[in-house]
Design brief:
This protein has two domains: about 5-300, Ureohydrolase domain (Arginase, Chain A, 3-Layer(aba) Sandwich), CATH 3.40.800.10; about 315-394, no CATH class. The protein is an alpha/beta fold. Strands 1, 2, 3, 4, 5, 6, 7, 8, 9 and 10 form a ten-stranded mixed sheet that branches. A four-stranded antiparallel sheet has the order 11-12-13-14. It is built from twelve helices and 14 strands. Helix content is about 30%, strand content about 20%. The longest helix is centred in the first third of the chain and has 17 residues, at about 95-110. Helix 2 (about 65-70) crosses helix 10.
Length: about 400
């Protein structure tokens, strides 16, 4: 597939402003005169400047380019860096055309195991990101980081305010799980959160993230893709949107979540949406988003490909649902049984997974979890994440 026809090249100034040979600018392969070989890359940056889904209209400046200027001046991380910059996507004749372009481009990248990094445009562009996963022909999970939950009725709202509803109701359905993170409850109608609860989806308010950000890690680890709206960050830390919101994630918390997403072995695309440089007088928000991308890339190169749960790098534990607490590892010869939940702990990263078998006993899924989930089960309590996954498995 010739992806070059969908993109405008970058200017030399965007990637040459960083003079030091140790910066990312010296390692990225940008689309200047020649379209880069994205098939050989690990990650591909895509700039977006599509705003027809937003009531506010387009900003005067190109947000992705403003973030690039900051990103390429950052020092390269400790790992390798096979990163290409495909330039800026040319919007379609209609907004729906842009969604379909994103679908085709992202699907092509996924086929070659190249992770798209989507930057700019209104948040509804993650609908095109979502559509690309239909080509995988398997159930997928995704996570949204947003101050609001964009589930308004499409007939009475802009695509930016209703794109999540459209994804959740998409037919044919290929969605297994969804997680909403960092929303602010006073900005979300109660019936919206009730609807997510009835669908057995997990939510984590911004206050819960702040109390213990480690709670967000299993939710991001289960996602095939992550979609971030800059409005999830408090305005003082990232003044790149309107109307201003004094509450939300700090820049440190946002960078940590980007790191978690990058470390996720199965996550295959990452989107940062909603940045409006017109409000970013001093370029602070551009630097925050650039740093989030840096942490995602660094996390990507710290992936451990932890998939062999029966291998020597994992310790198995079985938490009994009846009887006294038991914190001992599960002997390989022991029967697992219907009255126990099996957990897996990585000896490399200390991350935890939990085995969930449906009530009929014919479907099993191993899902990310936390150490707290294991402690609850060891005390004889069913973890909430186990209950939700059980409901999703039917």
């Amino acid at each position: 597939m010739n992806l070059a026809i969908f993109f405008d090249p970058l200017t030399e100034e965007l990637v040459s402003s960083a003079s030091a040979s140790t910066t990312l600018a010296s390692y990225v392969t940008p689309f200047l005169d020649t379209f880069p070989d994205w098939r050989a890359a690990d990650l591909a940056l895509i700039g977006l400047d599509e705003w027809r889904g937003s009531a506010a209209g387009p900003p005067a400046q190109h947000g992705a380019d403003a973030v690039r200027t900051c990103l390429y001046q950052l020092q390269k991380g400790s790992g390798p860096c096979r990163l290409v910059d495909l330039g800026n996507l040319r919007p379609g004749l209609t907004l729906e055309d842009t969604y379909q372009r994103l679908r085709e481009i992202i699907a092509a990248l996924l086929e070659h195991n190249t992770v798209p990094l989507l930057l700019g445009g209104s948040h509804d562009l993650d609908y095109g990101q979502f559509l690309a996963y239909e080509t995988l022909e398997r159930p997928i999970s995704f996570a949204a980081i947003d101050a609001r939950v964009d589930m308004a009725e499409p007939d009475s709202a802009t695509p930016e305010d209703s794109h999540l509803r459209r994804m959740l109701l998409h037919e044919p359905s290929f969605l297994f799980n969804f997680a909403q993170l960092a929303h602010q409850q006073y900005l979300v109608a109660p019936d919206v959160l009730t609807a997510l609860e009835k669908l057995h989806f997990e939510t984590l308010r911004v206050g819960q993230v702040r109390d213990d950000i480690r709670q967000a890690e299993p939710l991001l680890r289960q996602a095939d893709f992550v979609s971030v709206d800059i409005t999830a960050l408090r305005w003082n830390d990232a003044p790149g949107y309107y109307p201003a919101n004094p509450f939300g994630l700090t820049n440190e918390e946002a960078a940590k979540l980007a790191w978690y997403a990058g470390c996720n072995d199965q996550l295959s695309s990452f989107g940062l949406y909603g940045y409006r440089p017109d409000y970013d007088t001093h370029g602070l928000a551009a630097m925050v988003l650039a740093t989030m991308l840096w942490y995602f890339v660094e996390g990507y190169y710290h992936r451990r490909r932890e998939t062999d749960f029966r291998g020597p790098s994992f310790i198995r534990y079985a938490a009994g649902l009846h009887g006294p607490p038991d914190y001992s590892p599960l002997d390989e010869s022991a029967e697992e049984g219907p009255d126990r939940i099996v957990f897996y702990k990585s000896q490399q990263t200390d991350r935890w997974w939990m085995e969930v078998v449906n009530l009929a006993g014919n479907v099993k899924r191993i899902v990310p979890c936390s150490y707290q989930d294991y402690l609850h089960a060891a005390q004889g309590d069913l973890p909430h994440r186990w209950i939700l996954t059980q409901a999703l498995l039917g």
